[in-house]
Amino acid sequence: MNAMRRSAALVACTAAAAAALTAGCADPAPQHPPARIGAAAHTFPAASPPDTAAAVPSAAASAASCPSGDTWQNKPRPVKNTPQAQALAMALDPHAYPGYAATYGSLLIDYPVGRVALCFTDPAAGHRMAREAKRAHPGIDLGRLDVYRCAYSERALVKVVDTMSGEATVAGFPLYTVGPATDASGIDITTTAEGARSAALHDDLSALSGGVPVHVTEGGRPELTSS
Length: 227
Hints:
alpha/beta; 2 domains; four-stranded mixed beta sheet; disordered N terminus
């Protein structure tokens, strides 16, 4: 049951799962993320810069916030991931670069169409990982990559998910799905309509999360599939 909840809820795109994705994540019309997200994201030029210290952005450099579910999931999607974005996402598989686990947050394919959004708690680390990926996979186009800032690392959020998924119910309400938010800003949870309105559930989840923001919405019970 715990594994079912986690697998149903881990909705943040990761490069490791890119090959299995059949839908993109963006509106085909705009060529850049909506302006309301914030300041412009760090974007690689079409020709990758030399791999020198001067080419690495400062850790203090500003970056837009990682796109949220509101600006990503509800947009029209291409029938399948574009090959350019999928190739880039596969090369950016965070599991291939374990040294960045403390800062890697999320990866969105085809946001917008043909581009990849890479979210890090430290955008400068995201740029460094991208250049490592370029050395390992010279054929990828870093001109299609945008690096954003996120609040939490995927590793930190998964620890919270594991803690919550061990609870059959919280404040008397079932947790249908538990997983990192797509923008790595906290934890997304679905429960019953009554649970979504329950102040007691919100309070107990906040205590379990250790201060990590929790977003609770009404959702249906995931269907069990036979193996």
